[in-house]
């Protein structure tokens, strides 16, 4: 690869493990989306509030500087409106989802494979891509110029190193002095010498490494492992024995051995995604329905396993970018869930509604997926209503019946296999889709969103207005 030829010091690593990945990540994504259409917000402290205006789920740099923590309840920071000019907006997932789709489209051109990892992050496979740094800078500038969104791009031999490079690119920009300024915005570890890479890893706290959660970070620190470099130098066998194969994989990835391919990433904490490329192109709505029901059911299970509820849901379908003979089509849609839900029936119903709006006949679809967004803690189990008889209308969200149904669903599937019990709409078994699941009745999406900006890019009646 020309990049490595230009930096011969990196060659031994590259020869051994020729992989290369980029991570493209939007900076303060929700806040940045708001600023695209409301430039007066640039430079002001800005937070985006979760559904029903409960707490801060995104913060601009200026808001972070005020000491506002992620997840801070609105009533605790409200006084900063008067005191510090804080602007708070309700989450506008229709806008963020649409801007995300555009960002992903532009980012995809960076390499030959893309994994959408979260609403504002994607991994790009750079194998065989010449001049990766220059292309990354060009991609970054395009996203900035065409969409108005700031991003940072990290490049490394493995996904874990690409994540780390992204952290460096972001920190070098935000916190001058944390890392060398020339690594800001785009940081390509493949261009550096082994000594330079070690130096960067040594400056990076172990808790910043992808896949090292707060619990493992604390345990590692107790063992004297403070930095990413110290983690990289641990004996993988010992790590597997004392912690897990997952952390062992992280250690190997930090050393440049690619263990995690595209599509195999561990789920990020704030979003749960289930996406898949199809074995062969899919053209029928019914097949897409089955696929999405299946993906959404899996995502819903993960959601319940981590004790969360989703406040919004993103669905996307697309044709293959690698089959130029096929007409291209790629769309995504975000629907809010109000109140937030962990109910498979409700989530699948909403996903299928989104699909109905997205689907166009005549295309050969190659990939589809569901992402659960705006995750929040479910109410404590103590509210479970095990014994009480169901009252009329008592099958609504959060009712004992809905929770018991989900508990039963999970229990049966845990014993008999993941797909033993499933919604009719996910297909298989020869039975027709359950009418209630395949064609969900329209639901009123009322939410407390008093501060929501217009859905500039997805609603004719909310188009951006330019005053003369
Ligand atoms: Mg981001």
From TrEMBL:
InterPro entries, alphabetized: DNA/RNA_pol_sf (IPR043502), DNA_pol_Y-fam_little_finger (IPR017961), DNA_polymerase-Y (IPR050116), DUF4113 (IPR025188), Rev_trsase/Diguanyl_cyclase (IPR043128), UmuC (IPR001126)
SUPFAM superfamilies: DNA/RNA polymerases
Coiled coil: none
GO biological process: DNA repair; error-prone translesion synthesis; SOS response
Domain UmuC: 21-213
Keywords: DNA damage, DNA repair, SOS mutagenesis, SOS response, Transferase
Name this protein carries in UniProt: Nucleotidyltransferase/DNA polymerase involved in DNA repair
Organism of origin: Serpentinimonas maccroryi
Organismal lineage: Bacteria, Pseudomonadati, Pseudomonadota, Betaproteobacteria, Burkholderiales
């Amino acid at each position: 690869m020309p990049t490595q030829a230009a930096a011969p010091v990196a060659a031994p690593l590259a020869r051994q493990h020729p992989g290369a990945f980029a991570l493209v990540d939007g900076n303060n994504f929700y806040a940045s989306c708001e600023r695209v259409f409301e430039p007066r917000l640039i430079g002001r402290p800005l937070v985006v509030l979760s559904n029903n205006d409960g707490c801060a789920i995104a913060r601009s740099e200026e808001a972070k500087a005020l000491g506002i923590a992620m997840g801070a309840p609105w009533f605790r920071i409200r006084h900063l409106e008067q005191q510090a000019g804080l602007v708070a907006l309700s989450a506008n997932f229709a806008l963020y989802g649409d801007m995300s789709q555009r960002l992903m489209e532009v980012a995809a051109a960076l390499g030959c494979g893309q994994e959408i990892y979260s609403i504002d992050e994607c991994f790009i496979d750079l194998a065989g891509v010449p001049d990766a740094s220059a292309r990354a800078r060009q991609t970054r500038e395009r996203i900035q110029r065409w969409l108005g969104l700031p991003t940072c791009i990290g490049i490394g031999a493995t996904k874990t190193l690409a994540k780390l490079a992204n952290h460096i690119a972001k920190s070098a920009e935000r916190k001058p002095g944390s890392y060398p300024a020339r690594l800001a915005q785009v940081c390509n570890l493949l261009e550096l010498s082994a000594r330079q890479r070690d130096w960067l890893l040594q400056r990076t706290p172990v808790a910043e490494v992808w896949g090292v959660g707060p619990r493992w970070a604390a345990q590692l620190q107790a063992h004297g492992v403070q930095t990413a470099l110290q983690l990289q130098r641990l004996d993988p066998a010992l790590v597997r024995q004392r912690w897990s194969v997952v952390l062992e994989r992280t250690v190997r990835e930090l050393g440049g051995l690619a263990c995690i391919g595209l599509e195999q990433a561990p789920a990020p904490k704030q979003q749960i995604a289930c996406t898949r490329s199809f074995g062969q192109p899919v053209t029928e709505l019914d097949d897409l329905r089955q696929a999405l029901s299946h993906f959404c059911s899996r995502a819903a299970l993960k959601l319940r396993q981590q004790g969360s509820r989703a406040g919004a849901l993103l669905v996307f379908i697309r044709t293959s970018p690698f089959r130029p003979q096929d007409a291209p089509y790629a769309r995504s849609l975000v629907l809010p869930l109000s109140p937030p839900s962990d109910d498979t029936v409700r989530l699948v119903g909403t996903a299928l509604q989104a699909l109905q709006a997205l689907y166009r006949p005549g295309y050969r679809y190659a990939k589809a997926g569901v992402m659960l967004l705006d995750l929040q803690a479910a109410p404590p189990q103590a509210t479970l209503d095990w014994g009480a008889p169901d009252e009329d209308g008592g099958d609504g969200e959060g009712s004992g019946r809905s929770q018991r149904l989900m508990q039963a669903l999970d229990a049966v599937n845990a014993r008999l296999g993941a797909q033993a019990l499933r919604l009719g709409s996910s297909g298989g078994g020869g039975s027709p889709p359950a009418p209630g699941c395949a064609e969900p009745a329209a639901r009123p999406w009322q939410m407390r969103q008093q501060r929501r900006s217009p859905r500039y890019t997805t609603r004719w009646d909310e188009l951006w207005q330019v005053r003369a």
